[in-house]
Amino acid sequence: MALIERSFQEKIILVGVALGSKGYEEVESDLDELALLVDTAGAVVVGRVIQRRDRPDPATYVGGGKAEEIHRLSEELDVDTVVFDEELSPAQQRNLEKIFGRTAIDRTAVILDVFAQNASTPEGKAQVELALLSYRLPRLRGKGRSLSQQVGRIGTRGPGETKLEEDRRRLLERMSTLRRELREIQSTRQLQRRSRVRSRGATVSLVGYTNAGKSTLMNVLTDANVLAEDRLFATLDPRTRRLPLPGGEVITLTDTVGFIKKLPHQLIESFKSTLEVISEADLLIHVVDGSSKSAVEQMAAVREVLAEIGAGSIEEVVVLNKMDRVVGELPFEGDIPDAIYISAKEGTGVPDLLSEVSTRLRRRTVLKEVSVPIEHGEILAFLHREGEILSERSDETNINVLVRLDPASLGLLEKMLSDRKSGSLADGQFNL
Length: 432
Ligand SMILES: Nc1nc2c(ncn2[C@@H]2O[C@H](COP(=O)(O)OP(=O)(O)OP(=O)(O)O)[C@@H](O)[C@H]2O)c(=O)[nH]1
Ligand SMILES: [Mg+2]
What we know:
Blueprint: E1 11-19, H1 24-41, E2 44-53, H2 64-77, E3 81-84, H3 90-100, E4 103-106, H4 107-118, H5 122-136, H6 168-200, E5 203-208, H7 214-221, E6 239-244, E7 250-255, H8 265-270, H9 272-279, E8 283-289, H10 295-308, E9 316-321, E10 340-341, H11 350-364, E11 366-373, H12 377-386, E12 388-394, E13 398-405, H13 407-421
Parallel strand pairs: 1-2, 1-3, 3-4, 5-7, 5-8, 8-9, 9-10
Antiparallel strand pairs: 6-7, 11-13, 12-13
The chain binds guanosine-5'-triphosphate and magnesium ion (MG).
Residues 214-215, 228, 234-235, 258 line the site of magnesium ion (MG).
C-alpha cells in the first residue's frame, strides 16, 4: 500500500452536533470515540467544538456563524484539519473547506483511513480500496487538487490515493476491477469454507465492538496467535481455527473485523464476503467490553450492523469481557441477562463460556434413531463424522444408531437417503 510517511503531526479539531433530542453527554462520548479514532489514525486532537441544532444546515451542517467561529479557532490553534462526527455531504465539505481555508472531513473518512492503514492481505487491501473509492467518487473535484486531497493527511492516505487525480471513468474502471478481483478471491474462500463446514461441524463467530477483546479471546481459546492490540480495528482479515469443546465436539471459531457506531456503509458493502463468515455462523459469541461505560450502547451498535448484514436472527452468547478491570457491580448488570463474565486477559470465565457454547449448540441439534443396513458403511461413517453417536447396536442385518445431529447434517443425511431410494435401499429401512 502506498502509505505516505508522516513528516508532521496533523493537528485536529473535533466538531460534534447535538441534533434534536441528542444530549451533550452523548455528543461528548461520541467525540471521545472519534478522538480515539483520530489518535489511531496518527493525528493529534487539539480542540473540540460542540453545537446544539434542531437540524443540519444544508450548506455547512453547523451554519455560517458557527463555521466562522470554527475557522477562528482553527487559526488560533493552528490546526490542519477539522473533523466532523456527522457525515458531511460532498457540498457541505466543499463549503466548509472554503470557509476554513483548511481540510474538513467526517467520521467516515477517519474510519476509512484507519482501515486503510490496517489492511495487510491482498483481500483486505482490495476491500478497503473499494470502500475508499466509493467514498471519494462523489467527492471528486473538477479542477486541480482540493484541500482534502492534500496527501499525507487523514482521508487522503491509503490505496488508491494516486487515482484521485484520474477522472471519474478511470475510478469506475478501477472499482469494477477490484470487484472482479474480490469475487475471485471470495469464491475460492467460499468453497474452502463450505467444505470446512461439512467436515467439521458447527461454526461459531466472534463478533463485537472494536477493541472489545475478540482477538485476545481467540488467542486464549485457540493457537491462532492473532494480533490483539489496544488499537481500533486491529483485526481486518478473518482467521478461523478448530476448537474442541468440553463435550468432545469440535467447532470452527472465527475472529473477524470489529464494528463501531455508524460503521460506514461503503465498508459494509465492500467487506460483504468477509462478513459472510458471520452471517453463515451457527452461533455468535458477542464480546462486549464490560468495563466500558458505553457497553450497552456498543452492544446496540453491534446488533444494528448484524441486522444489516443478515445476521440479526442468529443466536448469540453475550460475553462481558475485561472483568478484571471492573470493581463492584456493573451499572447495567440487569440489562444483559444470561451474559457470561470473563477476562480474556486473565483467562477467567473461559470454561463457563465453553460449556455455554456447547449447551447452546446442543440445543440446536436433534436426536435421531437411525437403522443402517450393514452394507451401507458410508452412511455409518457419515454419522460418525457429522454427529455424536450416543449408542450403537447391531443385529444381523442392521446397525441401529442413536445419534445427535445438527440441522445441516440431518439435511445431508436425508438427501443421502433419498438418493439411495432408487438403489438397493428400500423405503422404511430408516427410522427417521
Ligand atoms: N484489562 C483487560 N484488557 C483486555 C481484556 N481483553 C482484551 N483486552 C485488551 O483490549 C485491547 C483490545 O483487544 P483485542 O483483542 O485486540 O480486541 P478486538 O476486539 O479484537 O479489537 P479489534 O480487532 O481492533 O476490533 C488489547 O489491548 C487487549 O489487551 C481483558 O479481559 N482485560
Ligand atoms: Mg481483533
